[in-house]
Amino acid sequence: MDLKADRSAGLLLVPGAFLEEGQDVGRVAAELARTLRDLASWLGLRDVVTGDRGALSQPLAAALARL
Length: 67
Known about the structure:
Radius of gyration: 11 Å
Mean pLDDT: 98
Order of helices and strands: EEHEH
Shape: globular
């Protein structure tokens, strides 16, 4: 996973999210989404935005939208 804090925009950016073979995509995306929201809050950022690189990017974006 790639992370970048864009403090001026108030965003935690996730340009790429990758999944190791054999992992449960739904479980990893859901747990990672909660963790990223917590991290963004701790950093004083208002939102988490995902990019499109990696097999986990779309499931992560969907999990973040459900929070």
